[in-house]
Amino acid sequence: VLPLPGKLEKFVSAPAARFAVDVKAMAAACSLRAGSAAVAAGKLDVAKDLLQTILSYHPQSEYAYYTLQAKALLSELEMNVVEVTLNLP
User: Fold this and answer.
1) Total domain count for the chain?
2) How many C-alpha atoms does 87 have within 13 Å on its Cβ side?
3) How far apart are CA 47 and CA 23, in angstroms?
4) How far apart are CA 67 and CA 23, in angstroms?
5) Interatomic CA distance for residues 73 and 49, integer angstroms
6) What's the pTM?
7) Does 5 fall in a domain?
8) In terms of C-beta distances under 8 Å and separation of at least 24 residues, what long-range contacts does 71-77 make, across chains too?
């Protein structure tokens, strides 16, 4: 990490320590990000596995954001598979 210039350093406070972290939410966020990266890299099977994990382990309402995002990305993947299949001779 590069040190801040003296003029800016006085405006930056020390980061607060986190006492509580929602590990499930963090795992869901990481899986969602990794699934998106797998799609971008063309690794669709890996992406599906990661996104399915979110759906199976995070069905609770407090993780609805991650579940909805995973469902949306999975539905896009399914649509792309259908499009590719329809274009085959």
Assistant:
1) 1
2) 6
3) 21
4) 15
5) 12
6) 0.64
7) no
8) 73/32, 73/35, 73/36, 73/39, 73/47, 74/48, 77/39, 77/44, 77/47, 77/48, 77/51
Q: In which band, very low, low, confident or very high, does the pLDDT at 14 lie, cut at 50, 70 and 90? A: confident
Quick check: 69 and 61 in contact, CB under 8 A?
A: no
Angle at Cα 56 formed by Cα 51 and Cα 50, nearest 5°? 20
What does the pLDDT average to over 38-47?
Answer: 90
C-alpha 66, offset from chain centre: 8
What's the helix, strand, coil split of the chain in %, to 5? 70, 0, 30
Q: State the amino acid at position 18 in one-letter form.
A: R
Query: Per the domain annotation, does 44 fall within a domain?
Result: yes
User: Residue 70 is part of which domain span?
Assistant: 22-83
5 pLDDT more than 80 = no
- Given a contact cutoff of 8 angstroms between Cβ atoms, the answer to whether 30 and 64 are in contact is no
